[in-house]
Structure formats: structure tokens, C-alpha cells
Write a structure and sequence with these properties.
The chain is of the alpha/beta class. It has a 6-stranded mixed β-sheet, sandwiched between helices. α6 links the parallel β4 and β5. α1 crosses α2, α1 packs parallel to α3 and α7 packs across α9. The structure holds adenosine-5'-triphosphate (ATP). The site of adenosine-5'-triphosphate has 21 residues, from α3, α7 and α9. Belongs to the AAA ATPase family. CDC48 subfamily.
């Protein structure tokens, strides 16, 4: 971003339709986040506390960020995206200050979701902790979460690839006490992801996504997104060899020539 802030805010425009596979996981996310945010009164009546924090864990590129954005967008919540490593790279004292600002901003714009990617870098397990800075930043995060009112209108979603490396204090009651595993997609999941990413593309007759799903064992969503993008670029090179386009230009050309949204080509 260049602004020097490790955070960006707004309401994203991702929908549940942009997520391939992950039906059960999405169901859980909706129950934990969408329900309390839409109907806080139900939780009050039942006398149960809505969650303050939900942890999404699983390998990189499986759709954790996508899912957090989609739920924020579907409930029209303010969304702030912060990166653990970027927060930690700030100068002395700035990490805590920035966390505080993010939580203030969320409270002012509630309903709001604060998404913390690679949260393990902010809150590593003690022992893996290199020292004082982490201790202060974790303490700040815990106190900010403890300070969230129990109205359920601000929820923190943390994402990590290394759930075991996370400070257990963060996973205790009232903090990130709900966890959802976002795993590597199976064949059906891969097919659905391919469907999402080719939705706006003019596919040749006889293209069988089933077959691609069969042949991409081990691919995560991010890999499948690149695969469809590459395929589209190859098609363009073949169809318009005279263009001899640089990568950037090809991206722009594809976006123009096909009714594909820019979001499909990010990352
Ligand atoms: P990281 O841990 O690296 O942040 P992540 O799990 O948050 O990874 P995303 O950033 O959500 O992964 O995924 C990267 C991109 O891959 C998405 O923008 C999307 O294009 C594609 N993608 C990943 N998972 C899915 C999915 N389940 N359905 C559709 N697209 C997906």
C-alpha cells in the first residue's frame, strides 16, 4: 500500500459464490459470525456470549482470507485486514499503537470484522517467543479482545498456517475460542473452485473441469486460480500471437476481453 499502515479498511465485495468447496466450513463461519452479528438479541435471550474471536487454520492459499472477506461483505460489516508480520515489523511501541487504532476503528464502524492474517507471528507460543516485543504485543491484543463489549458487533478473525505455534493464551475462553480448519480441497472441492474461477471465461467446448479436478491432486485454491489464469493467458497468446504482450498488458487485455472480475485475478 505504501501508506506505512499494515492495515486496510472498508467493506469488501466478495460473496459466498466466490468460494469453491468449503461448504461445511462456510456453514460454521456463518453460524459463528453471521448469526450473532445479525441477531445479537438471540444470544442475549439465551444468555450465551457471542464469539469475540474465531480462528481459521490451515495451509496457505486455501481461502481463509477469502472466507473472512466474504462473510464481512455478506453482512455488510466494516472489514479491516491486518498482517501479523507487518504489525510486528513496526518500530518500538508502534505495533501496540496500531493494534489499538484498528480496534478503535472497528468499534466506531461496527458491525465490523478485524482480520489478522498470520496471527502466529504476533502471538507465538512462549518459548518460540524471541522476547519482550512479542510479549507486549500479545498482551495488547489480549487486552483489546477482552475489552470488546459482548454485543457481538466486532469479531476478530485470526488466520494461521501453524495453529500449534500459537500462544495458548489466545485460544482460551472469550478470545479465539472457536476454531475452524480450512483444509486442502478434495476432488469435488477442486472442481468447485475451478468452476468459480472459470465462471466468467469463455470455455472451449469439450472442456471437462472434472478431468482437471482429477489431475490436480494437492492443488489449493490459490494454485487453481493461477492455473485458470495461466490457461487464459495461453489461449490469448495463441489467438492473438501478434500482440506479443508483456505480462501486465496481458492481464489488462484478459480483463477487458473477458467478463472476468478483477478479483478473480488477484494474487
Ligand atoms: P494465506 O494463508 O496464504 O493468507 P489464505 O488461505 O488466506 O492463504 P486466500 O488469500 O484466501 O488464501 O486465497 C488466495 C486466492 O486463492 C484467493 O484470492 C482466490 O483467488 C483463491 N482461492 C483460495 N481458496 C479458494 C477457494 N476455496 N475458492 C475459490 N478461490 C480460492
Amino acid at each position: 500500500s505504501g501508506s506505512g499502515r499494515a492495515a486496510s479498511g472498508g467493506t469488501p465485495s466478495v460473496t459466498y459464490e466466490d468460494i469453491g468447496g468449503l461448504d461445511d466450513e462456510l456453514e460454521q463461519v456463518r453460524e459463528m459470525i453471521e448469526l450473532p452479528m445479525r441477531h445479537p438479541e438471540l444470544f442475549q435471550q439465551l444468555g450465551i456470549e457471542p464469539p469475540k474471536g474465531v480462528l481459521l487454520h490451515g495451509p496457505p492459499g486455501t481461502g481463509k482470507t477469502l472466507m473472512a472477506k466474504a462473510v464481512a461483505s455478506e453482512i455488510d460489516a466494516h472489514f479491516t485486514d491486518i498482517s501479523g508480520p507487518e504489525i510486528m515489523s513496526k518500530y518500538y511501541g508502534e505495533s501496540e499503537e496500531q493494534l489499538r487504532e484498528v480496534f478503535d476503528e472497528a468499534a466506531e464502524n461496527a458491525p465490523a470484522i478485524v482480520f489478522i492474517d498470520e496471527i502466529d507471528s504476533i502471538a507465538p507460543k512462549r518459548g518460540e517467543t524471541s522476547g519482550d516485543v512479542e510479549r507486549r504485543v500479545v498482551a495488547q491484543l489480549l487486552s483489546l479482545m477482552d475489552g470488546l463489549e459482548e454485543r457481538g458487533d466486532v469479531i476478530v478473525i485470526g488466520a494461521t498456517n501453524r495453529v500449534d505455534a500459537l500462544d495458548p493464551a489466545l485460544r482460551r475462553g472469550g478470545r479465539f475460542d472457536r476454531e475452524i480448519e480450512i483444509g486442502v480441497p478434495d476432488k469435488d472441492g477442486r472442481k468447485e473452485i475451478l468452476q468459480v474461477h472459470t465462471r466468467g471465461m469463455p470455455l472451449a467446448d469439450g472442456i471437462d473441469l472434472d478431468q482437471y479436478a482429477d489431475n490436480t491432486h494437492g492443488f489449493v485454491g490459490a494454485d487453481l486460480a493461477s492455473l485458470t489464469k495461466e490457461a487464459a493467458m495461453n489461449a490469448l497468446r495463441r489467438i492473438r500471437p501478434e500482440l506479443d504482450l508483456e505480462q501486465e498488458e496481458i492481464d489488462a487485455e484478459i480483463l477487458e476481453s473477458m467478463s472476468v472480475t478483477e478479483g478473480d485475478f488477484k494474487d
